[in-house]
Amino acid sequence: MRKIAPSGSVSETVLVSLPGAESQETTHSSDILTFLNLEIRINEQTVYYNDHSVPLTNHEFFTLLYLAKHPSWVLSKEQIYEAAWKESTEHCGAAVTNVVYSLRRKIGDEYIETVVGSGYSLLWAVSAFYLS
Fold this sequence. Notes:
The protein is an alpha+beta fold. The chain contains four helices and ten strands; from the N terminus they run E-E-E-E-E-E-E-H-E-H-H-E-E-H. The strands form four sheets. The protein has a four-stranded antiparallel β-sheet, covered by helices on one side. Helix 1 crosses helix 2 and helix 1 crosses helix 3. The longest helix has 13 residues. The two termini are about 20 Å apart.
């Protein structure tokens, strides 16, 4: 099931609805988000792909974290920019596009889907492996 995020900011606490899985609550207090071959250690601000540390910039990390906290949600570039950059979206330009491109180079294409005309989404098939 794909959810379209409402315009404006998305709450830091969301209910995750995944096919074949019980709903789980995700909050800032979670230490680690685990997906298929991908681990996001929130408190350490590190990411591991296939058990190898992936060096990410702050914007890359917080973009990936924001998408991971809202699996299967379609999030606009403006929502992602506001969450990762903590700034007004009036100057977001191609910043989010460039960060998503960089993330795909570092962790592969299978995690982030471009939803033409809407934004980006963490693929639901990958998020179905969500563990924590």
